[in-house]
Design brief:
Blueprint lengths: L2 H58 L8 H4 L17 H10 L2 E3 L4 E7 H15 L9 E6 L4 E9 L2 E14 L2 E11 L2 E3 L5 H20 L2 E9 L2 E8 L4
Antiparallel strand pairs: 1-2, 2-9, 3-4, 4-5, 5-6, 6-7, 8-9
Helix pairs in contact: 4-5
């Protein structure tokens, strides 16, 4: 074998080794890129939902999210202001409603009505009576009545901030008990799906529904709830008929 042949073989071996090293380096490079891509996707999958939840919580004002709550929390306002009756108690309102009740002898029903100012007074007293049994503390509450829904506007103190809550619901009767179907719930600046407003239903039933139902059950059974502008009308079957 000549010296030239030996030199060519050595050159080929060196080139072969360099090619193999370069291929192995490319494989390692691709593995690193794939790992970094997977890591990025994992970080993205974790941080995006967290960021979405943080933004939604910041809009409600219920949670203090640094840098977000102060910018995103915008308190909702009621459709109109309704003030409670000054100096009136629930017993006074219910007695007045009973005195104004209109019996319908042919149908065997008693018709009663409550203005939104009277309902606001009843709701405030109902909240005071429920106290710690409420799922959230309430600082103030008012009731407005429209033809298509009853609106509750409340303020709850949370983390040193007054958070506003506005809810619209449709009242109905089930076995003599007043129940509600939520139609709208807005906490701060966040609109909450009615399907997630179970706590709201509990608050409303305790603050308003229970007050009316307990009182009505003393004289009869509630059968119909009707809504008019500024007025809630009830029809009751009395316990004792003449």
């Amino acid at each position: 074998m000549t010296k030239i042949d030996i030199g060519d073989q050595e050159t080929r071996q060196v080139l072969k080794k360099e090619i193999i090293d370069e291929m192995q380096h490319d494989v390692r490079r691709r593995k690193v890129r794939n790992c970094l891509g997977c890591l990025f996707l994992v970080i993205l999958a974790v941080t995006v939902p967290v960021a979405i939840v943080a933004v939604q919580l910041a809009k409600t004002g219920l949670v203090e999210v640094p840098l977000l709550t102060s910018r995103l929390y915008h308190p909702i306002q009621p459709s109109r202001e309704v003030r409670p009756l000054f100096g009136a108690k629930a017993s006074d309102i219910l007695l007045a409603a009973a005195s104004k009740a209109k019996p319908t002898l042919t149908l065997g029903l008693i018709k009663m009505s409550f203005t939104e100012a009277e309902l606001t007074t009843l709701a405030k007293e109902g909240i005071a009576a429920s106290g710690a049994n409420l799922p959230i503390p309430l600082k103030s509450i008012q009731v407005a009545v429209d033809t298509d829904a009853v609106e509750i506007f409340a303020v709850t103190p949370q983390n040193g901030r007054d958070v506003t809550v506005r809810a619209r619901f449709l009242p109905w009767v089930d076995a003599g008990q007043m129940k509600i179907t939520p139609k709208e719930l807005i906490i701060g600046g966040l609109s909450v799906p009615p399907s997630l407003s179970g706590a709201l239903s509990l608050v409303l039933n305790k603050s308003l529904g229970n007050v009316l139902t307990t009182t009505i059950n003393q004289v009869g059974r509630l059968v119909v709830v009707e809504l008019d502008k500024g007025v809630l009308r009830l029809q009751i079957v009395p316990n004792f008929r003449p």
